Amino acid sequence: MTSQPMPTELIELIGRFAPLLRAAGSPARLHEDRYRWPHLDADLLDLCLAGDIPV
Predict the structure, then answer these.
(1) DSSP letter, residue 2
(2) 43 exposed, middle or buried (CB, 10 Å; 0-12, 13-18, 19+)?
(3) Number of domains the chain is built from
(4) Do 44 and 54 form a contact (C-beta atoms < 8 A)?
(5) Residue 36 lies in a domain
(6) Average pLDDT, whole number, for the chain?
(7) Residue 54 region by backbone torsions, left for phi larger than 0, else alpha for psi between -120 and 50, else beta
């Protein structure tokens, strides 16, 4: 199994929404599914943490 790069559009959206997400003050939910699968995209987490977005 190979990993897929994060879509450029998602990276751009995170950058645009970062000020709103920080202002909201509540943690952003990065992953949720109905089966409680524990996997999380580490690149997405890193991007949010680098943008000071609470997770």
Answers:
(1) -
(2) middle
(3) 1
(4) no
(5) yes
(6) 85
(7) beta
